[in-house]
Amino acid sequence: MPQREHSAVTQVIKNVKPFGVKFLIIFKMGARKRIKAEQRKEALKAVTYAKLRNVPTSPRKMRLVVDMIRGKEVNLALDILKFSTKEASRKVEKLLLSAVANWKEKNEKTRLEDANLYVKEAFVDGGRILKRLRPRAKGMGNRIRKRSNHVTIFVDSRLSNEVNNIEK
Description:
By secondary structure, this protein is α+β, with helices and mostly antiparallel strands.
């Protein structure tokens, strides 16, 4: 059986049934949207980051920890996380170490000690919410929302920023 060639334009086929009649609609991704997506991918290749997805703690609790390290040098941020009493700080500490390892992988020629790494950007997004029911009196039930989150940390070198400022 011969394989079909896939074109660069993605096609999504949907069956729509308004008023009992079946229609076939084909959507094509526009050129402008595809170019923007490629530019976004290229921009992410230039920066160093690490993501932690579907962490089973509420985003509000995780933001308290992430706010402590935003803009700090990496060594100071690791110390802050290590001595923090919050449970979420262990996960963020591991994520920060992963971001530093990603930076090392991209910048093999530069020594880590000379780079003066810092947390350039860190943010927490809400993840999926698991909805559960807790039994209450008189046959009723209350909804329990078990929240999760996604954490993203960007790491950069102050050395590279100084070089860019001098060139401008």
